[in-house]
Design a protein that fits this description.
Radius of gyration of chain B: 41 Å
Radius of gyration of chain A: 24 Å
Number of strands of chain B: 6
Number of helices of chain B: 21
Shape of chain B: flat
CATH architecture of one domain in chain B: Up-down Bundle
Number of strands of chain A: 4
Structural class of chain B: mainly alpha
Protein name (chain B): A-type voltage-gated potassium channel KCND1
Strand content of chain B: under 5%
GO molecular function (chain B): A-type (transient outward) potassium channel activity
CATH topology of one domain in chain B: Four Helix Bundle (Hemerythrin (Met), subunit A)
InterPro entries (chain B): BTB/POZ_dom, Ion_trans_dom, K_chnl_volt-dep_Kv, K_chnl_volt-dep_Kv4, K_chnl_volt-dep_Kv4.1, K_chnl_volt-dep_Kv4_C, Shal-type_N, SKP1/BTB/POZ_sf
Largest sheet of chain B: 4 strands, mixed
Keywords (chain B): Ion channel, Ion transport, Membrane, Potassium, Potassium channel, Potassium transport, Signal, Transmembrane, Transmembrane helix, Transport, Voltage-gated channel
Membrane topology (chain B): Multi-pass membrane protein
Order of helices and strands of chain B: HEEHEEHHHHHEEHHHHHHHHHHHHHH
CATH topology of the largest domain in chain A: Recoverin, domain 1
Oligomer: heterodimer
Largest sheet of chain A: 2 strands, antiparallel
Helix content of chain B: 40-55%
Strand order of the largest sheet of chain B: 2-1-4-3
Structural class of chain A: mainly alpha
CATH architecture of the largest domain in chain A: Orthogonal Bundle
CATH class of the largest domain in chain A: Mainly Alpha
Strand order of the largest sheet of chain A: 1-2
Largest interface: A-B, 53 and 48 residues
Strand content of chain A: 5-15%
Chain lengths: 215, 638
């Protein structure tokens, strides 16, 4: 008798799809941001229409909803630096790109940032870098901020480096930086000091030129 | 790296400007990117279905065929597209992988076809998305199991043993596969018969027989015909012992054999008899002895060597061990609970059969399995209520693990069916392969003959040529070259085996006979293989008209030589002009590798040639051997 019941019940082995996933999906896709028109973006940035098209296609493919949030950004950036921990630096980078400070990068932010970095003037690039370092956006880079940035960069290197990164290496790096940049020795670096010091730095200028043709 | 990461790479590189102020050294030069900046649409034609995609899409995965320069090999200059001669349905999925970064596995496709496509396009299957990964893995595992079973069945045990196996190995094989030799089969059936006899004797000896004269009570047959049963038992046990010892001797690994289940069953089946012999006729131990006789019933398990169904059942139970364990455990729990409850419910009533909790176990088991003997019945209302709950829950608890066991059994059973079907199909398949091979050989031989004619008679060859593809022509030419290289010729099984037979009989024969009623000319000897290079022994033993013995003069009945005017229809044996057969020399080893070529099936069967050869008209045109009766045609062997 038990066997009969058993065989009957054996037929119904279908799996039922879960119902509660659909609500989550709806939520995700309702937030869909569209960028401004192609012409406007072309006017605002230094890219041509073709380049914008290519950029947007890639962007849209990755983020169909039209925005990148910080988690996704960190995840993507971490893929480039698998050896170490890129999350801290990605966080700062994200903030640098997110000019509107609303926690997500839209295509416009993305493309304007790229335009500055790739096609901008030297001053624009240096300003962008200054804003990257200036975490709290107060117009000054102090030692703590710089230490944070440098530590974040060293974190990306990971554990296995040659020579091995000892504890105070980031600190030394920060000291060297401040020595170079902080002209009036007041403990903070302003935008002007930064720009001037960078322009005097031969090494940096050479490197800057190399980055012209990244895209 | 995931797909989209490639999109973000320029972005990450641009952001590297942020490191510049901190850098102590100059940055390295960026790699030169020669590819065109602007994106373009690529056209991919897969078996006529045209796909279009951005070049960037394909470049996302540079270590695949479409993403690397390997696709340039498939570029068609005229149509300016990439042409792949593959399945367009599958290509859809491949292309979607480039577009979305996720590879999906279509359920309706064969797993092997899918794997092959992935291998072609250079995509590793591990990147199949989570949504389809489980299905893919299941199908793949199923397929691999099936292949493993098939290969097992193929190389199996039905293959003939290597000739140099020891008697021990042969014995073991005979035991494991009874259908390989008649002796083994006989032994198999004899043991089966004796197992049946033994079991029936065990059963029958307890049946009451008519009492002997002078007694009133009915006697079980075992005691009435004690001697007869004892003799039968002895005979059976002797056979079983003998079989067991033989198996033990033949087993390749004795320890493993002794630990196997069948061996244990064998031992348990015969042990009681010996113990009974050894033990004295003592009143005290005879009770134990009687118990031992129970073990004789285990002889019935010896049938599992003879019955596959029994083995399947055994495997099923073994594979469902955990489910059975769960069933047992849950039943035990339920029994204890209900027994306790019933005992306390029925405790008060007078004359209650529920005397203790263990006594209630019996009631609970009988109720849960819905047997309901009725020897123990609750009388109180509470008892009845709990009794009904007990019976209902029993049904549920037993029904739970049963589907698992049933599905396991079904799976194992189908696997076995499949193995049997495979074996049956194998024979058909082998036969088909053999026929195909023969067909190829025949085609080749036909080709040679045609080619032989080709030089002289272009008309008929033209006809034959038309029926064969360029591929066949080239293939045949290749085989021909091989023949020339090795100085041997292709032939078919039949004549070869005949040749081997004659060789083994001790004949040094090189009697070439025609294998067909009509002659074909063999042209190939003139060119490459002049007189001495032939090692041919064309033997035709259909009617065993060969009467060649060592040292005797060879009489070659029909040497088919090149004749130009004979239309080519059939094959001929191949002795060309000027071939000498020196058969008197015993020291020359006549490796009869080459045999005359058989006729294609369409042709008439070969003639048998009389010992004293009569020149067959139309056959021998060679001036050299007009009257073969008296001429010793010598074929020199290398």
């Amino acid at each position: 008798m038990g066997a009969v019941v058993g065989t009957l019940t054996m037929q119904t082995k279908q799996r039922r799809p879960s119902r509660d996933k659909t609500e989550d999906e709806l939520e995700m896709t309702t937030v869909c941001h569209r960028p401004e028109g192609l012409d406007q973006l072309e006017a605002q940035t230094n890219f041509t229409k073709q380049e914008l098209q290519i950029l947007y296609r890639g962007f849209k493919n990755e983020c169909p909803s039209g925005v990148v949030n910080e988690e996704t950004f960190k995840h993507i950036y971490a893929q480039f630096f698998p050896h170490g921990d890129a999350s801290t630096y990605a966080h700062y980078l994200f903030n640098a790109f997110d000019t509107t400070n609303n926690g997500s990068i839209k295509f416009k932010d993305f493309v304007m940032g790229l335009s500055t970095l790739l096609r901008g003037t030297l001053r624009e690039k240096l300003e962008w870098t200054f804003h990257l370092y200036d975490i709290n956006r107060d117009g000054y880079i102090n030692r703590e901020e710089m230490t944070e940035i440098v530590r974040a960069i060293y974190d990306m290197m990971g554990k296995y480096t040659y020579p091995a990164i000892k504890g105070d290496v980031p600190q030394q790096h920060v000291d060297a930086f401040f020595q170079k940049m902080d002209k009036n020795k007041d403990g903070v670096v302003t935008l002007e000091e930064f720009v001037v010091a960078c322009q005097e730095d031969e090494t940096m200028m050479r490197s800057m030129q190399l980055f012209e043709n990244v895209m | 790296m995931a797909a989209g990461v490639a999109t973000w790479l320029p972005f990450a590189r641009a952001a590297a400007v942020g490191w510049l102020p901190l850098a102590k050294k100059t940055m390295p030069k960026p790699p030169v990117d020669n590819s065109s900046r602007s994106d373009e649409i690529l056209y991919v034609n897969v078996s006529g279905v045209r796909f279009q995609t951005w070049k960037n899409t394909l470049d996302r995965y540079p270590d695949t065929l479409l993403g690397s320069s390997e696709k340039e090999f498939f570029f068609n200059e005229e149509t300016q597209e990439y042409f792949f001669d593959r399945d367009p349905e599958m290509f859809r999925h491949i292309l979607n992988f480039y577009r979305t970064g996720k590879l999906h596995y279509p359920r309706y496709e064969c797993i092997q076809a899918f794997d092959e496509e992935l291998a072609f396009y250079g995509i590793v299957p591990e990147i199949i998305g989570d949504c389809c990964m489980e299905e893919y893995r299941d199908r793949k595992k199923e397929n691999q199991e099936r292949l493993a079973e098939d290969s097992e069945a193929n190389e199996g045990t039905d293959a003939p043993l290597p000739p140099d196996s020891t008697s021990r190995e042969r014995l073991w094989r005979a035991f494991e596969n009874p259908h390989t030799s008649t002796m083994a089969l006989v032994f198999y059936y004899v043991t089966g018969f004796f197992i049946a006899v033994s079991v029936i004797a065990n059963v029958v000896e307890t049946v009451p027989c008519r009492p002997p004269k002078g007694s009133v009570k009915d006697l079980p047959c075992g005691e009435k015909y004690q001697l007869a049963f004892f003799c039968m038992d002895t005979a059976c046990v002797l056979i079983f012992t003998f079989e067991y010892l033989m198996r033990l001797f033949a087993a390749p690994s004795r320890c493993k054999f002794m630990r196997s289940v069948m061996s244990v069953i064998d031992v348990v089946a015969i042990m009681p008899y010996y113990i009974g012999l050894v033990m004295p006729e003592n009143e005290d131990v005879s009770g134990a002895f009687v118990t031992l006789r129970v073990f004789r019933v285990f002889r019935i398990f010896k049938f599992s060597r003879h019955s596959q169904g029994l083995r399947i059942l055994g495997y099923t139970l073994k594979s469902c061990a955990s489910e059975l364990g769960f069933l047992l455990f849950s039943l035990t729990m339920a029994i204890i609970i209900f027994a306790t409850v019933m005992f306390y419910a029925e405790k008060g009533t007078k004359g209650s059969t529920f005397t203790s909790i263990p006594a209630s176990f019996w009631y609970t088991i009988v109720t849960m399995t819905t047997l309901g003997y009725g020897d123990m019945v609750p009388n109180t209302i509470a008892g009845k209520i709990f009794g009904s709950i007990c019976s209902l829950s029993g049904v549920l608890v037993i029904a739970l693990p049963v589907p698992v066991i049933v599905s396991n059994f079904s799976r194992i059973y189908h696997q076995n069916q499949r193995a049997d079907k495979m074996r049956a199909q194998q024979k058909v398949r082998l036969a088909r392969i053999r026929m195909a091979k023969k067909g190829t050989t025949n085609a080749f031989l036909q080709y040679k003959e045609d080619r032989g004619l080709g030089d002289r008679d272009s008309d008929s060859t033209a006809l034959c040529v038309k029926n064969r593809s360029a591929f066949e022509h080239q293939h045949h030419h290749l085989l021909h070259c091989l023949e020339k290289t090795t100085n041997h010729e292709f032939t078919d099984e039949g004549t070869y085996s005949e040749l081997c037979m004659t060789d083994s009989v001790g004949f040094r024969t090189s009697r070439s006979t025609s294998l067909s009623s009509q002659q074909g000319a063999q042209n190939n000897s003139t060119g490459c293989c002049p007189r001495r290079a032939r090692r041919r022994a064309a033997i035709r033993l259909a009617n065993s008209t060969v009467s060649v013995s060592r040292g005797s003069v060879q009489e070659l009945d029909t040497l088919h030589l090149k004749t130009t005017s004979i239309p080519a229809q059939t094959r001929s044996s191949l002795n060309a002009q000027g071939v000498n057969l020196k058969l008197n020399c015993g020291e020359q080893d006549f490796s009869a590798a080459i045999i005359s070529i058989p006729t294609p099936p369409a042709n008439t069967p070969d003639e048998s040639l009389p010992p004293s050869p009569v020149p067959i008209p139309g056959i021998l045109r060679n001036t050299r051997a007009t009257t073969f009766t008296h001429e010793t045609v010598k074929i020199s062997s290398l």
